[in-house]
Amino acid sequence: MRGLRILPFVLVAALCAKTIPLAAQVPLGSRSGRGQTVTPAYEGWYENADGTLSLSFGYMNRNFDEVVEIPLGPDNLIEPAEFQGGQPTSFATRRHFGVFTVRVPADFGDEKVYWTLRMGGERFRIPGHLHVDWKIDALVGEAGSGNTPPVLQFETGGAEGGGPAGVWGRPLDTRAGEPFSVTVHARDDGVARGGIAAAGREGAPVRLTWFKHQGPGDIEFGEPTADVPTSGGEVTTPVMFSVPGEYILRVRANDASGVATAGHAQCCWTNGFVRVTVRP
To answer: Per-residue pLDDT tens for 194-236?
Structure first.
């Protein structure tokens, strides 16, 4: 992220003072499997090819074992209301960077998008904004490294996309408890982001990881992770839904920089989303 390393402490404090308490933003404290909070995180913003801007959000689930569910509504709210609905309702354990984006017009200016989470009697609210120090190189690589995110596509000839905003597949439908599968195509440039963490990883395969993004029941992924060659390939993943309802699946594609090297530039992975209607 350009300018992040020299961002004055005073500015950071000012941005956070009216939103999440500083202690709630720092993933420290005693190790606990369950019962801890989930807090939203603002990662930064970047420009899209069509001139719009994407505000990228993630979260921190402080639990080591418990996946937390917070349905859309007053306890899981994006404001203004026109941007509500794309955020996760299922929060996997620990820190997750760039899980979804909110797209705003080029003239958004000084306006803000707020994400609020309430749980256990606590309220956490974080603003997404267009401050210049929070501009990220999500599509072109950190600090001019040239590393671009993987490209995802859900069907041949269909839409494809890269970066945190990623791409949406066409809506699907199935029945609860019945065998079902989702296919995704991926490719990458094979470039690893610079630094020790990426040393020797150039040309490493794209790692695909599936998550439940939204939905009322449990989801079982037959193969929650899989690798695809950088030159391109596809993976078909078995999926089973426990109860009927409306679901969103998310697949994250990490490039040669490695799954653990998310970092702040967000240059190195792509999200893919699929809506699934599960009938009785």
So the answer is: 544 455 566 789 999 999 999 999 999 999 999 999 999 999 9
Q: Is 280 exposed, middle or buried (0-12, 13-18, 19+ CB in 10 A)?
A: exposed
**What does the alpha-carbon distance between residue 239 and residue 222 come to, in Å, rounded to a whole number?**
6
d(CA 67, CA 164): 22
> Tens of pLDDT along 98-133?
999 999 999 999 999 999 999 989 999 999 999 999
* Bridge partners for 254 per DSSP: 207, 269
What are the chain's domains? Answer: 4-134 (no CATH), 142-279 (2.60.40.10)
- In angstroms, rounded to a whole number, what is the distance separating the alpha carbons of residues 188 and 180? 27
| Tokens of residue 151, six digits | 């490209």
This prediction's pTM: 0.85
Tokens of 124: 């956490």
Task: Say how far apart CA 64 and CA 93 lie, in whole Å.
Answer: 6
Task: For 65-75, give one letter per residue: b (16+ CB within 10 A) or e.
Answer: ebebbbeeeee
Helices (H), the chain: 9-16, 22-25
Q: How far apart are CA 103 and CA 67, in angstroms?
A: 27
CB 43 within 8 A of CB 128: no
DSSP 30-52: ---SSS--EEEEEEEEEE-TTS-
- Helix, strand, coil shares of the chain as percentages rounded to 5? 10, 40, 50
